[in-house]
Amino acid sequence: MRMAGFSVSMETSCGALFTELEKIWAEIGESEADKGRMLSEIERECLKIYQRKLDEASASKVQLHQSVAAKEAELAAIMASLGEFSLHSKNSKRQASLKEQLASVTPLLEDLKLKKEERIKQFADIRLQIQKITSEMTELNNHSDEATNPVDTEEHDLSMRKFNEYQSQLQTLQKEKSDRLHKVLEYVSEVHTLCAVLGLDFQKTVNEVHPSLQETSSGQSTNISYHTLEGLAQAVLRLKSDKKVRVQKLREKVESLVELWKLMDSPEEEKRSFGRLKYILGSPEEEINYKGVLSEEIIEQTEAEVERLTKLKASRMKELVLKRRIELEELCKKAHMEPDMSTAPEKSNALIDSGLVDPCELLANIEAQILKAKEESISRKEIMDRISKWLAACEEETWLQEYNQDQNRYSAGRGAHINLKRAEKARITVSKIPGMVDNLISKTLAWEDERSMPFLYDGVRLVSILEEYQLTRQQKEEERRRYRDQKKLQDLLLKEKEAMYGAKPSPRRASSFNRKMNGNGNGFMTPCPRRASVGSATPELLTPRSYSGRYNGYFKEMRRLSTAPLNFVSLSKEDTSSSFASISGSEPESLG
Question: Exposed e or buried b for every residue in 184-221, given b needs 16+ CB within 10 A?
């Protein structure tokens, strides 16, 4: 429409001009030839103007084509590097003019250039972080040219896919860095603990691995390279090995020290400075974390103390041997065992003075005897407990005999009811003695069969003591029966004498009268111990307490005396009652 209007307007203008030119030519009187010639010149000049304008339009078209193509190529390259799809459709491109195409591409290209610059910055930042962490883990101090311009080689691919790959790589490196830093801190903490226990310089130890591990350093990040981790691991292993060696060494010294304290009976003042070291004897190695407890200074002090006590021990060895021997004898005495006479004090002193035996060997021998005595004492415990119960029952039997011999036991005196109750309990206990002895014999025989050795009580076989006790007890019962029979015979003879010569005062009344005259103020006489005389009608019951001291000769004499019968008939009434007072008082029948 514009071109059609332009043509109409031009034809009107040209027609008007041509009409005006013809008028001028007519007034001038130009010839037809001149008119034709001038019209030809006008046509040629118009063609030249059209041709020039056509050339200019063609050049402008070519230039626009090149600009649009260049911008579209640049746009395509940027979009390809950014990994984005095309933003133009071919249909819209065909319908739009070159200027419209250029006008639409130019702002889009500027936006993409800004986006590319921002993407380049993002890539540069993330790759810089990756290279920094990689350098920290590989301990590289000199960066390559990529550190200055880290994305020049990657401008062809600035897509989000590539960016996400870098982000994933960065996250992996950050996690590995965190893990390494945590591991380094664990190693450093362990090194600090071990150095404190061993008394070593922590700063010097970690500085040998890497200077950045010192706590005092500032402005320098902690090194987390493979070399540092390996160095810390080797340092921990070395310190643990040193700790193990020192623990073993100190334990040996402390054990020797404790033993020397025990041997020397050291005062608490001497022990106090080393008392804290005793806990390492029963503590696991990993729990020994006391500051400085394994330092060289502590070990040297302990060694010096052990050496000092060892020298002192050598000078006091005779005293120590005697002390240990006394301890052995006390232990054997409590268990009623005979100590080994090879280490008797006289022999030990003689051996030490003569120099024939090393005092340490002699002391070790006594220690072994003490250990053996303790073990044997434990094995004898059950039988010794039964012996104690038997002895207690024998003591109750003795008390009951003395109680029965007391003429004032039934008087209403002070404490009489208590003695009555005790007498009842004592009778029950005494009735169990035979069973206790039988059981004790069977236990002792079983013990001897198990160990193939006799059970000695103060040097005498216990079974022999128990069998002699049973025999003596049987003889006593026989004597009691014999006494009862002879007493009946005596009573019968007295009755016959009374029938022949008349009644006389009864011995029972006389003895009753004597009890009233000889009693204490409240009519009660407390039983007191009384030894069996040679003229006693009953033998003494031998227990381990009496047997061991009188085994040679005395027991035979007692048996000889106990088996000699007495002539009760030849005794007078008064002599008879006094001679058998002890026997009649010990019998249960006399209580009636």
Answer: beebbebbebbbbbbbbebeebbeebbebbbeeeeeee
